[in-house]
Amino acid sequence: MTQLCEACGHSNDAGSRFCSSCGRPLSQAEEVNTEVLETLVADSEGLNLDNPLTGAALIVASGHQAGTRYAVTSEVVTVGRHPDSDIFLDDITVSRHHVELTASSAGYDIKDVGSLNGTYLNGQRLEDSEAFLTNGDELQIGKFKLLYLVSSSA
Predict the structure, then answer these.
(1) Helix (H/G/I), strand (E/B), else coil: 15
(2) Cα(71)–Cα(69) distance, rounded to whole angstroms?
(3) Nearest alpha-carbon partner for 44 in 85, 18, 12, 72
(4) b/e code 118-143 from CB counts within 10 Å (16+ = b)
(5) Residue 45 confidence class, pLDDT cut points 50, 70, 90
(6) Is the dihedral of CA 9, 3, 114, 102 positive or negative?
(7) pLDDT value at residue 145
């Protein structure tokens, strides 16, 4: 199901809040609550979840890419709307360069790198500092909700 922009007539994905052509807000018949996240049991098939640096994954829990799994394996993982991002989230609510995940000895730290809409970790907006990610953390980047999962053996 698509949603037409009243300003330019562009056809947008269902659930979009802004027109992907002109950027104007789209009327929402039902406002989506961004504070509630359903529990998602992740299937880790195909992911190596045996150590903190190769045993992590981000799983899109909501948004038009729901169910998509991204293995987090590099020293630095970029997330944003820029096509060269390691994790590409294609929606106008996501900044081109939104967040970076940086490997540490115990796992990954996350830092908002100047996004306009901010980044939320477990419902709290990330400020200027980095935060350490732990298994089961809920991230909100634009309208996307993601779960950070690591192997139980990591």
Answers:
(1) coil
(2) 7
(3) 72
(4) ebbbeeeebeeebbebeeebbbbbbb
(5) very low
(6) negative
(7) 93
φ, ψ of residue 88 in degrees (nearest 5)? -95, 115
Per-residue pLDDT band for 114 (boundaries 50, 70, 90) equals confident
Which single residue is written with the structure tokens 């953390």? Answer: 137
93 CB neighbour count, 10 Å cutoff = 19
The alpha carbon of 26 is separated from its chain's Cα centroid by a whole number of angstroms, namely 21
Give me 77's structure tokens: 């993982």
Burial class (CB in 10 A: 0-12, 13-18, 19+), 105: exposed
- Per-residue confidence band for 54, with pLDDT thresholds at 50, 70 and 90: low
What is the torsional sign of CA 13, 19, 22, 27?
positive
DSSP-assigned letter for residue 41: P
pLDDT surpassing 70 at residue 76: yes
Position 84 scores a pLDDT of 93
